[in-house]
Amino acid sequence: MTTRTRLDAVLIEVLWSRVLSVVNEQQVALQRTAFSTIVRETQDLACGVFDTNGWMMAQSVTGTPGHINAMATGVRHFLKEYPPGSLSPGDVLITNDPWMTAGQINDITVLTPVFKNGIEVAYFANTCHAADIGGRILSAEAREVYEEGLRIPIMKLYDRGAINQDLISIVRANVRTPDETVGDLYAQTSCNDVGARALLSFMDEFDLDSIDPLSHEIITRSEEAMRGAIREIPNGVHEHETWSDGFEEPILIKAKVTIEDEDILIDFAGSSPESVRGINVVFNYTHAYASFAMKAAISPDVPHNDGAFRPVHVSAPPGSILNCLEPAAVASRHIIGHFLPGVVFGALAEALPDRLMAPGSDPIWISIWRGRPRRSDDRFTFSLFQCGGAGARASKDGLNTTGFPSGVAGVPAESVETLTSMVQHRRELRTDSGGPGRFRGGLGQWTEMGCVTDEDWTVSGMVDRISYPPEGLLGGGYGAAGEFRIDGTEEAQPKRLLVLDPGSRVQLNLPGGGGYGDPYTRDPEAVLWDVIEGYVSVEAARRDYGVVVEYLGKDDQLVRLPDDYRLDPEATQVLRRS
Questions:
Q1: What's the pTM value of the predicted model, to 2 decimals?
Q2: Which residues, in sequence order, are bridge partners of residue 125?
Q3: Which H/E stretch holds residue 548?
Q4: Sign of the C-alpha dihedral computed for residues 136, 137, 142 and 148 taken in this order
């Protein structure tokens, strides 16, 4: 196999499936051994295997684009610092440098070389969001990266199997959650070992001395498929822009997408300059979400590896919000970075009218809570991830409370209330939050949090789309704007650290997704069922869709019909155009 330039298609499929099983085993090991809910429940992680060139061969089924694609470029930084031949069995490398990996110091990347017969044959890497990294409570308030916590350069976490105890001691002394943060480092190391053992077993089974030929074949096929998909799009230049709430002032995100034969150029020139607050985006992260957007738009079924984003060329002016320079603050870079797929889709909407989706809530809402339970000397620090509605698709409604483009999951109420003294008083779908359209945007959610404590407690909210709700696409309507309130009163600046009274309740009402297409072309029966399910109010059905829904139930109030009930148009409801 090592001498063949092209491999049999059937054999490639078998080998590719086995490689996927290897990285998925790596991911499962990570989630099952992790200490933090961020990794176990939210799945804010990435796992992948790389060949000896540092090219990403495969990723696991779960992971955020900001971690996966940034990790793919980050591995090259590792290999520049420790070239092949400079590492030994038992060595493990680590860094959280934002400009080398995933854009914030809470994201820690761990890389492990794999040896066969004393020779490096592959690398396993993973990136996880740490429960805490010291400095300020994770927020957008900082003005320099130095305020945001402990920054670890590329260095050894293990040296020939021996843990770097000095580094572990430094980490434990600088974070608020030492057990969770250090525990996750052990989990990150262990999962790489699990992947390495599975890969070596796979190589022995198929008598492989190297995975490089297989990697080259898989990556080349992905690149060819991606280029083939690009060739189907007419050449041209497409532009779009959108706005984020920003911190002290709104942020403009502007994209120009150029199709040139089998290459795509995405330029973010014209976007806002670098911010003085921690919402700046390193170029690694910008490239990650922009290249992900193109793959999702034109070739979603192609295996995701280094070849999938080779035809996508991304640029942003140095010193801009999407290519910040050291020592810019970057802790909340996702607030801006998660807008990028939406703005790229907006640019391509006319060129690909039947293949894209409207903007959704986009930035996932992350809130960091800290407090002291009653009759306890220990403070908790808890990261709550929440999802708003996704944008409507070209042929389907948007998904409710789904983290796109991040791909992370929300945190169950049971986890919140088991691990802290917080109480989730409310969590339900937010009626009328999905933007109207031929296909309706996904719904956001109403949530309300309290805390059983006798002392002040705090929340740091990293939220957006409060001033600028998700716009619709190709005639679709806006989704509902988000709301961040304390005891029902709107908070003017939710991105800063807020001190709460013991009896306070915090309302986080997440945005809905934008609609797709003219609302007056939506099937009236679909509008009726939206009302029955509670997704759309009777008033909104009339206002947004021109559909009148009247019920003959008790006191003319809306009643929830049993799932097996078949509507009788003559006896149960009246549908007509206004």
A1: 0.92
A2: 48, 111
A3: strand 547-551
A4: positive
Neighbours of 351 (CB within 10 A): 16
The token pair that represents 431 in the structure block: 């009626």
Report the DSSP beta bridge partners of residue 462.
Answer: 366
Q: How far apart are CA 482 and CA 445, in angstroms?
A: 9
- pLDDT 10s per residue in the chain (578 long)? 444 445 677 888 899 999 999 999 999 999 999 999 999 888 899 999 999 999 999 999 888 898 998 999 999 999 999 999 999 999 999 999 999 999 999 999 999 999 999 999 999 999 999 999 999 999 999 999 999 999 999 999 999 999 999 999 999 999 999 999 999 999 999 999 999 999 999 999 999 999 999 999 999 999 999 999 999 999 999 999 999 999 989 999 999 999 999 999 999 999 999 999 999 999 999 999 999 999 999 988 888 899 998 999 999 999 999 999 999 999 999 999 999 999 999 999 989 988 899 999 999 999 999 999 998 889 999 999 999 999 999 999 999 999 899 988 888 899 999 999 999 999 999 999 999 999 999 999 999 999 999 999 999 999 999 999 999 999 999 999 999 999 999 887 889 999 999 999 999 999 999 999 999 999 888 988 898 889 999 889 889 998 877 654 445 444 444 444 444 444 445 554 43
**At 339, is the secondary structure helix, strand, or coil?**
coil
Angle at which helix 212-231 crosses helix 283-298, to 10 degrees, equals 70
**CA 26 to CA 126: how far, in whole Å?**
9
Hey, what long-range contacts does 119-122 have (CB within 8 A, 24 or more apart)? 120/52, 120/84, 120/85, 120/87, 121/52, 121/203, 121/209, 121/210, 121/211, 122/49, 122/50, 122/51, 122/52, 122/57, 122/196, 122/199, 122/211
- CA triple 333-338-341, angle to 5 deg: 140
C-alpha to C-alpha distance for 439 and 434, rounded to whole angstroms: 10
Tokens of residue 387, six digits: 């999802």
Assigned token pair, 118: 């004393």
